[in-house]
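Appendix C reproduces, verbatim, an entry submitted by the partner laboratory led by Prof. M.T., so that reviewers can inspect both the input and the predicted structure.
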Amino acid sequence: MTDAPPAGVDRPLTRAERRAQRSGGSAPTPVDGVGEPTGSGPDAGGRRAAVRARRRARAERRRFWLITMPAIAVVLALLVGVGVWLRRTDEPTGGGGGGAGLPALQTTAALLGHTTIEGAADVILVLGRTDEDGSVLLMPAATQVEVPSLGIRTLGQVPALGTAELLGTTVQNLTGVRAGAPVLGGDALWASALAPAAPLSIDLPNDVVPDGASRPETPAGPVRASAEEALRLLTVEEEGSEVDHLVTVQAVLTAWFDRLRDPEVAAATRAAAPELAGPLIEVATTGAPSFDTLPVDSVGTSGDERLRVRSAAMPALVERMFPDARLGIDGVRPRVEILNGVGTVGLAQAVAARVVPVGADVRLTGNWPGFGIGATQVVYYRDRDRRAARIILDAVGVGSVRKAGRAVGITDITIIVGPDFDPEAATP
């Protein structure tokens, strides 16, 4: 006869249970492969459901990292590739305002000027382009400036006193805008550039009254002008201030830009006057370039107009119009004095032509007392200007850098030019 099962047990005891009874302990609780208790007690169903839920959660996490995330990465890579391809195919590849010509006006502005028979400049323009924004700065020829080696002169006088490069150095130093080699020309060059766009439909805001005339030469309102008539409007000496005349200049340029947006007109202009055409077309193709006039105040008398730049207004104007073509060293233009230590005429002009494009703001030029300097020196006064002094020395091409013991209030760096500097040598 078999033993009856223990009370409360309706199944045969396992071998482990029997050993536990004999030893007075309890049977070990079996576990499955994931560490969760199993069995057939009243909570077994809930435990199995929890185990399945955790297993599903782990499986979903594995699918997310092994399948979903790689798929998202692939889609994003495809989108980026398509975007790059679209931008590449949308970029202009040539013609007016696009392609190889554009970068030159991103970081370097263009200086254009019309010269009289005497060699003076009566129209001076700085043109620039940043992305899709074009800018034209109108510069009154009567503006007084510090010209290296020559002292205070007007902008219009500079080409007749030196070279086109001297005007370029002077304008860059005045504005703090990096400009390329100036393009200056007389009536023949400008008329040939205007001819492909003629006739121009010009909307004159004011009557054009020549200086000394009693009646308007050209009344205000719409004008259909030939190339010669448009050039006359650009260069005529009007009654009143030169700043007033620049309103007429802007009207002519606006009409010219409208015509230069025509690819055929642009191509013909490039063929007729490539020096002028390039910058003009680059700016014209922005659609509606912004115009501004050099901020000046009148300091002259009637019949001998002289204008003085409002220096405090220049930084904001340049930042707005030529943000990518600003000159400076680490964002600052150190004030520079150039002293001729040899006595050679025009030495300061040659030095200025090298240091202004790297960011120097030439405030003063003069002679070292008694000359007799043995070698070129670039002198700085404060530790903060040492790096700028090194950059300026590299631009000069010869000499040494040294620190002076006492700061000078009106300048940050002094260049004392010695006999080792050769103005005819190639720019470093």
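The domain at 99-321 is CATH 3.40.630.190 (Aminopeptidase). Additional entries are available on request from the coordinating office.
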